[in-house]
Amino acid sequence: MFFEVDVERQVGEAWVACRFSAPDGLTVLFGPSGAGKTSTLHMIAGLLTPSRGRIVVHDRVLFDSEARIDVPPERRGVGYVFQEARLFPHMRVAANLHYGAGEKHGEDFERLTRVLGIAHLLDRWPRTLSGGEARRVAIARALLSDPDFLLLDEPLSSLDKARREEIMRVIERVRDDLCIPILMVTHDHDEAKRLASQIVAL
Ligand SMILES: Nc1ncnc2c1ncn2[C@@H]1O[C@H](COP(=O)(O)OP(=O)(O)OP(=O)(O)O)[C@@H](O)[C@H]1O
């Protein structure tokens, strides 16, 4: 299994507990608002510490409460695309993409901007982008850090039907052409059915 996750902790008033194993491909975390989907992604990324549990990704233990293992977020090999695109507003798209891109330049950069259909947006400011364009840039930025896996938090929310279709195609390309395992949060059943190799209900 690519992902082996068993985590729990208190978040505000709520008790969030989530346990699943998933192969590579795309796994959807599916469930109603407040079920703890975003908190689970945060725990996998290392942004929130589980009070108990274990997180293994591709045979690498990222967190184990008993063994006292807690790999810091920047060493987890994670590409995280937050619910909002979170682009730097004072940097053009190209600079946003190069931020934290490490060694990944030249061919990889060209290929990614082509796969995500953002090559024509490189000189634009984030505030001039549509929701779908900003989402694609945010996905590209996450991929440029050369992650072992990708976490997508509601990548299709607050987009119109045409934009949703566009982003779904981008996600399918990342899944199938770039072969990067993806954990994705949604509460839309149709999206989940179309994109997922496995659905985890919370
Ligand atoms: N900063 C916070 N302070 C207090 N409670 C919080 C906080 N963040 C989340 N919670 C609570 O923790 C629970 C899990 O929240 P989480 O955002 O993980 O759920 P979710 O399934 O992602 O929901 P949504 O689909 O609405 O984004 C919810 O009951 C929420 O009210």
UniProtKB/TrEMBL annotation:
What is the protein named?
Answer: ATP-binding cassette domain-containing protein
Organism field: Stakelama flava
Task: Outline the extent of the ABC transporter domain.
Answer: 2-202
Q: Which GO terms describe its molecular function?
A: ATP binding
Recorded superkingdom: Bacteria
Assigned keywords, A-Z: ATP-binding, Nucleotide-binding
